[in-house]
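Batch manifest, entry 17 of 40.
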Amino acid sequence: MKASTLRRVLNAWPPFLFAGIRVVEFDTYRYAKVRLKLAWYNRNYVRTQFGGNLFSMTDPFWMIMVLKSLGNDYIVWDQAGEIRFVAPGREAVYAEFRVEDTVLDQLRAATANGEKCLRWFDTDIRTASGELVATVRKQLYVRRKRPKA
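Output type: structure tokens
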């Protein structure tokens, strides 16, 4: 699937659509930008960004982007995740994801002998003016597929 098609699918996906999450840019599997607007239907009791939505807006991207960038010879799964709240989100917030060639080279080298690799990826969630609202960490499990006998 082309990245532009996946962007449209994700924007229509009910967990994103009904949470106010929108994939703003996703032209390649190497870069994505996601926005979570603040609306009456997705804010918490104190009228700030709901923490579950902050985490959700980052959920599938590292796994999908690394999987597509490494290719069909690899298995990639989310292994763990954590979020650290820094400041209340009182407006729309954004998250950006970049998969660098050096990271892909490190993953290929670490899994060359069929071993698994667990690697953490960090994502800052910021307002349009750059204020840090939260930091999300996702750990990916990466392994080369075993050859079929």
